Amino acid sequence: MFQQKLTEIAQKHEIPGMAAGILMGDQIVYASHGVTNLGNPQPVDEHTLFHLASITKTFTATALVRLAAAGRLDLSAPVRRYVPELRLADPGSTAEITVGQLLNHTAGLEWNLIDGEQATLDGFAAELDRLPIIAPPGTRASYSQAGYNLAGLVIEKVTGQPYEKVVADLALRPAGLERTCFGLDEVVRHRFAIGHTADGDGVPRPATPWAAWPAGMRANNPGGGIASSVSDLLRWARHHLGSADLHAMTEPTVPLRASTLGDAFGICWFLRDVGGVRTIGHGGSGNGQFAELLIVPSRDFAVVSLANAGPAGYPANQEVVGWALADRLGLREREVRPLAYDESRAREIAGRYELDAMDLEIATDGAGLTLAVGIKPAIRRASEADMPPDYPAATLGLLPDDEYVITDGGLAGQRGYVTRDAAGAVIGADLAGRLFRRIR
């Protein structure tokens, strides 16, 4: 049944290759479909490596939690205790940001630096004074790749060893992960999936570079550089289910508002109630590759879904996870129903919003609202590598309390909300846990 369902979902979304697995107690089942690469096809199975992108953050956070338990660092301490050369755009934030705030995305750092010479974590940190500060530290959550890359530098400073080695020693080996690794030099030792993106003609083609940044650029490894397989990710889930020293990572640290990703952040993990049952999870999106891991601690359950095409890989993985929760545990997401179109509200939020790498456009034609999001044109023009396609305008439905939901397209089901200043003017829009600042 699982294999049949995965094949159905992969074919529906035209994904070249998918792999998935379910852990339930002592039982594990796998399913796979398609090929690693349309240009050089090899069959996908539970051992095939996919780029996990942001699921890497769970490994970075685990290493830091274990360093803290060993007395090597204090998660409540300012980052500058360990990285004294740190300079941010705001001197107050430079002094105040703590290691723990990096791990639950409350440091106030915008999403990421998207240009510059960042081959090392030291080089990345040296450029952080160019990154906007979107809020005072500790006052709100906004998902930040930069925060996790900085956390990787903390690991290097505390241990005097490369980030990747520390993660291997404190996370990969204790969990018994056999294929999980960083960098193409290690990835090519195994069968691995290539991401695919569609050109203007809609035909999926292999994406380059393999990750979302060129080979040798280690600066993004702590936030998104790891590769793994379904079999290893289920071992990772089992490790977190069975390790008492990691249980604190699943406790809420800051609430999330109107987010499809979760109701709160723990230490790294998105915490979300599904059918009244607590789940923990994390997703990842790379260059034509999407990954999803969800764990239900009280049911000794986990599900993994990996796909090698964008942007359809995201909704495909969501369908796999949703099906597994319903079929195996009887848990279903609560349906969100948009309100009737309100022209006054629509015109109030219509406009252009941005963060460092992306633009978000909310528009109305007087009868409905749409939302489009994509990479900034200047960044796309300057890049020598392929870049993921933009998400074209999709229908946006209004919800109570300045919240909204996207109802079709590649981001269908994603929720968000708008932010207002003290005078009540709309100054930002949150989507996928990230704050986009209003510019028009």
UniProtKB/TrEMBL annotation:
UniProt enzyme class: hydrolase
Record-annotated Beta-lactamase-related domain positions: 2-311
A Pfam family the protein falls into: Beta-lactamase
Keyword field contains Transmembrane helix: no
Gene Ontology MF terms: hydrolase activity
Keywords linked to the UniProt accession: Hydrolase
EC id: 3.1.1.103
Gene3D superfamilies, sorted: DD-peptidase/beta-lactamase superfamily
Cited InterPro entries: AmpC-like, Beta-lactam-related, Beta-lactam/transpept-like
PANTHER family given in the database record: BETA-LACTAMASE-RELATED DOMAIN-CONTAINING PROTEIN, D-ALANYL-D-ALANINE-CARBOXYPEPTIDASE/ENDOPEPTIDASE AMPH
Protein name: Serine hydrolase domain-containing protein
Lineage of producing organism: Bacteria, Bacillati, Actinomycetota, Actinomycetes, Micromonosporales
